[in-house]
């Protein structure tokens, strides 16, 4: 499945609200990185990523999330991942990334 | 049961999803549960990512084989890319994550057995096994 990215700036919480649907893999991770970097170019804020419809992620996707985290942390911000499916949560746990991102 | 399914796949990233889907169908047919099927999909994806990322020529192909046996699924991924030095592989420091280097660690964590042979200039061969519970 391809990747759909919905994004909107949340003025109340002062973060980018992003929803991912589909797969983040060797193909779509490139698109994800470009898309989110464009958002951060507009506003260097944190990211809240709703993963409810994220069905698959691999090391290429995790690498993109790590690179985005490094960027947002430079500005004192964080990345929050919410509603992750069991398979996604498992991968985040195995890689220790559940301690690096804010999991909700 | 002793069935072999072989694919020859172009070393292009858009075909990695073909490998993942094939692996999930085979694993499902063998009776693996949902969690194991997801593990296999990710591990196969990682191995194929490796073949694509290490290729020297996008006109090349890599070989993906599934050996469906009664108690286990064996998966082999062989490429003729530039290979890498296993001596230089270090387990990732999970407290200081980097953008690259998680692929082998993930394969090792999700599969029951993993063997990798690779030499610079000679391609890479990955063999992994998942046992039916």
List the helices and strands and how they pair.
The complex is a heterodimer of chains A (104) and B (133).
Chain A: E1 3-10, E2 15-24, H1 28-42, E3 46-57, H2 59-74, E4 79-82, H3 86-94, E5 102-103
Parallel strand pairs in A: 2-3, 3-4, 4-5
Antiparallel strand pairs in A: 1-2
Helix pairs in contact in A: 1-2
Chain B: E1 2-10, H1 16-30, H2 34-53, E2 61-69, E3 72-79, H3 102-110, E4 113-118, E5 124-131
Antiparallel strand pairs in B: 1-2, 2-3, 3-5, 4-5
Describe this structure in words.
The complex is a heterodimer of chains A (104) and B (133). Chain A contains 3 helices and 5 strands. Chain A has 104 residues and is of the alpha/beta class. Chain A has a single domain (3-73, 87-93), classed as STAS domain (Transcription Regulator spoIIAA). In chain A, strands 1-2-3-4-5 form a 5-stranded mixed beta sheet. In chain A, helix 1 (28-42) runs parallel beside helix 2 (59-74). In chain B, strand 2 (61-69) and strand 3 (72-79) form a beta hairpin. The A-B interface holds A 23, 25-27, 56, 58-60, 62-64, 66-67, 86-87, 90-91, 94-97, 99-100 and B 13-14, 16-17, 20, 35, 38, 41-42, 45-46, 49, 52-53, 92, 94-95, 97-100, 102-103, 105-106, 109-110.
Q: What count of domains describes the coordinates of chain B? A: 1
Q: Domains counted in the coordinates of chain A: how many?
A: 1
The helix count of chain B comes to 3
> In CATH, what is the homologous superfamily of chain B?
Histidine kinase-like ATPase, C-terminal domain
Put simply, the count of helices of chain A is 3
Radius of gyration of chain B: 14 Å
Strand-and-helix sequence of chain A, N→C?
EEHEHEHE
- Overall structural class of chain A, as computed from helix and strand content, comes to alpha/beta
Name of the CATH homologous superfamily of chain A: STAS domain
Total strands of chain B: the figure is 5
Backbone shape of chain B = globular
Q: Poorly predicted ranges of chain B (pLDDT <50, ≥5 residues)?
A: none
Assign the CATH topology of chain B.
Heat Shock Protein 90
Summed over residues and divided by their number, the pLDDT of chain A gives a mean of: 96
CATH A-level architecture of chain B? 2-Layer Sandwich
Helix content estimate of chain B? 25-40%
Give the CA-based shape of chain A. Answer: globular
Number of strands of chain A: 5
Q: What is the spatial order of strands in the main beta sheet of chain B? A: 1-2-3-5-4
């Amino acid at each position: 499945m391809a990747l759909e990215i919905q994004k909107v700036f949340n003025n109340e919480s002062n973060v980018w609200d992003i929803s991912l649907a589909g797969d983040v893999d060797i193909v779509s991770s490139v698109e994800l990185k470009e898309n989110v970097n464009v958002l951060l170019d507009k506003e260097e804020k944190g990211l809240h990523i709703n993963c409810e419809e994220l069905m698959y992620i691999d090391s290429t996707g995790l690498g993109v999330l790590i690179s985005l985290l490094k960027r947002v942390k430079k500005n004192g911000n964080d990345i929050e991942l919410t509603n992750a499916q069991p398979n996604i949560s498992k991968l985040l746990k195995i890689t220790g990334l559940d301690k690096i991102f804010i999991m909700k | 049961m002793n069935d072999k399914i072989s694919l020859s796949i172009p070393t292009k990233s858009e075909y990695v999803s073909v490998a993942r889907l094939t692996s999930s169908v085979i694993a499902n047919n063998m009776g693996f549960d949902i969690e194991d099927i997801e593990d296999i999909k990710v591990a196969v994806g990682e191995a194929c990512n490796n073949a694509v990322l290490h290729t020297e020529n996008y006109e090349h192909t890599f070989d993906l084989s599934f050996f469906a046996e009664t108690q286990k699924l064996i998966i082999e991924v062989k490429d003729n890319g530039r290979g890498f030095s296993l001596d230089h592989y270090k387990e990732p420091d999970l407290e200081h994550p980097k953008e690259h280097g998680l692929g082998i660690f993930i394969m090792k964590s999700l599969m029951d057995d993993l063997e990798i042979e690779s030499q610079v200039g000679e391609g890479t061969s990955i063999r992994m096994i998942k046992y039916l519970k």
